[in-house]
Every structure is written in C-alpha cells, then in structure tokens.
Amino acid sequence: MKSAAFVTACLQILLVRSTHPGIPPAAILSLDPQHHVYIKGEKVILTCLAPDSLKVAGYTFFKEQQDQTFKELPNSGMGPYEMFRVNEDTVGNYSCVYWIMPSGQEIWSPQSNLVSVAMADPPPFPVLKVDPPSGVVNEGSSLRLTCLANGTMTEKRFHFFKDGAEMDTSHEGSREPANTSPNASVSILQAKVNHSGEFACSYEEAIGGRWVMSPWSKTGKVVVNVPGQGPHSSAPPSPTPNPSLSLGYLRLAPTLLILMVPLAFC
C-alpha cells in the first residue's frame, strides 16, 4: 500500500509542469527508509521518481561536495534506484535528474529536490554486572543484575536476557526504571534453581526520533546452589548399583578361590 507521502509526490509531479514545451518536470527524490538520522552501516535506497507518462531513458544521481558543487555518483543511469550503506563517505545531500529521448535527442529534466543523509554511531556495548560477582548464590538468596550503558544521557529502554531469550522482568522481584539513567537493574529477591543460566543485556537509545538497539553485552553465568546438594547442575545422575549383581559376585567368590589354589603351587 502506497503511503500518503508517495501519493502526494506523484500528484506534485503531475501538477508541476515546465513552462518550456518539451522540457520534462523535475523528478522527486526520496529516501527509503526515511529517518532524520541514520545509524552507521544502515542500508539506504534513493528513488528518483519521474512521471509515469514519460518514457525515461536514464537517471543520474548526484552528491553535493564541500564546495557546494554536485558530483555524479558512479554507476548512475541504470535505473531510478541508488543503494548504499551509510558511512562517513556517504553522508551529505543528494539530488537526481532523468532524461528522455522523444526523437532520438536527449532532453534532461531539471534537478530534483535535495534529500539529506546524516549519520550517528550505533549505541556502544553495555556491560552486565552480576551481584554477587561470583555469580554463585544459594537458593532463596537475592540476586541482582545491572546493565551499564556507556552512551549519552538520552532516554533508554533496557532489556535483559537469559539463555538467549528475553526475560519478562515484570515477573521478577523488582526492577529499577532507567529513563535517562545510564543503567538499569533487575533484583531477584529469592533465587530459585531455574534462575541458573547465562544472562546478558542490551538497551534501546532514542536517536534522531527513533529507538536504536545496542549490541548485547557479554554474558554472565549464574549458578544457584541448593543447600545440602551442592551447585545445581543439569548433568544426569550417576547410575545406581544393581544389588542383584553385587550379590552374584559375592556368591562366585568361594568358587574363584578354589580354582586359584592349584595355581599357587605351580
């Protein structure tokens, strides 16, 4: 389903006509996805939109230089799309033109509107702290997980994970909200055996009017001990000796001794 902005752009193309006969109207250039700020490494697609009624022979995309001149992008002319990943070299303003050949002669459109690509670095890795630092607790004791974000003091939303799946922290003992705080904590007031596992965290940060997810932290291991049973482990129990086999060995013992007596005198 086409967006309202796309429909509006099409209407503008149909309404905006050149006053000079034979010169096509300017194209409308758009970005997909549309963001105020892009994260380094994100993929961006430029679309140069010309009127559907025209048979377009080719397209050319331009990037504004530091001296405010425009330089043609390599590989232009193949179609109405130009794709790249955002980095230091692709930040800047872009425009496009197209041309038609109604009688075998190139007729170029005016320059399109400008679109801007701004870049921000992705949120840095958070650090997960486990309290107690050893990660070993007794069943029934308290356990605290803290996610430390090294980013700016912007609004954040924190996520905690256990064994690769996101935790529903609303069901745990308590959680300290973060908002603009650089960290958030989850406190498990009474640890249970099923709290043993590998924990990690991440956070979302408000960048350019949208939420951007950070990478996951390194994992921290938690082991919950059951009093009297030692550390909880998922290893299978040792096999129980078979009483009937033990009794059989005892019955065979006299026979073996009798057979071994002649050997002692050889």
TrEMBL record:
Cellular component GO terms held in the UniProt record: external side of plasma membrane
Pfam families, per database record: Ig_2, Ig_3
GO biological process: cell surface receptor signaling pathway; immune response
UniProt xrefs under InterPro entries: Ig-like_dom_sf, Ig-like_fold, Ig_Fc_receptor, Ig_sub, Ig_sub2
Domain Immunoglobulin subtype, chain residue ranges per copy: 138-208
Signal peptide extent: 1-18
Disulfide bond among keywords: yes
Gene3D superfamilies on file: Immunoglobulins
Keyword annotations from UniProtKB, A to Z: Disulfide bond, Receptor, Signal
Domain Immunoglobulin: 33-118, 132-225
A GO term for molecular function: transmembrane signaling receptor activity
Name of the protein: Receptor 5
